[in-house]
Amino acid sequence: MSEDFDFNRIGKRMPYTAPKGFLDDIETNVWETIKDEVMPSKPKRSYRLWYSISGGLVAASVALLLVFNALPERHKTTDFESFEQAFFQLSSADQNYLFTVYQDDLFINE
């Protein structure tokens, strides 16, 4: 490479061209975008705050119900009582079938 390169010989001409008014259009578009962001034509409603407040109120209500046990108490049954109730609601034929299947079960009668 030669070290005698002279930048002054190149000149000051631009190697690229742009259409007429290109930079002016860019400037106009940028200013319109900035104007829309800074001062929008319609105020946008933010529902995030509304959802946060209502969600907090619902969570607080549920917490209060659980803490003060305001829900009515139900009759608590054991699994065996639930099984007995379901078994006695079956017809006698279904009860007999289940009883015979239970007696013939290989895994229970080992």
Describe this structure in words.
- The protein has four helices and no strands.
- It is mainly α and 110 residues long.
- It has a domain at 78-110.
- The longest helix is centred in the middle third of the chain and has 22 residues, at 47-68.
Give a quick set of tags describing it.
Anti-sigma factor, transmembrane helix, 110 residues, transmembrane, elongated, 0% strand, mainly alpha
Q: Would you summarize the structure shown here?
A:
The chain is an all-alpha fold. Helix content is 55%, strand content 0%.
Question: Secondary structure elements and their pairing?
Answer:
Blueprint: H1 22-38, H2 47-68, H3 79-88, H4 92-103
Q: Count every beta strand, where a strand is a DSSP E run of 2 or more residues.
A: 0
Low-confidence runs: none
Helicity range of the residues?
Answer: 55-70%
For the record, give the distance between the C-alpha atoms at the N and C termini, rounded to a whole number: 96 Å
How would you state the average pLDDT, rounded? 79
Overall morphology: elongated
Class inferred from helices and paired strands: mainly alpha
Largest sheet: none
Strand content: under 5%
Number of helices: 4
* H and E order: HHHH
CA gyration radius, whole angstroms: 41 Å
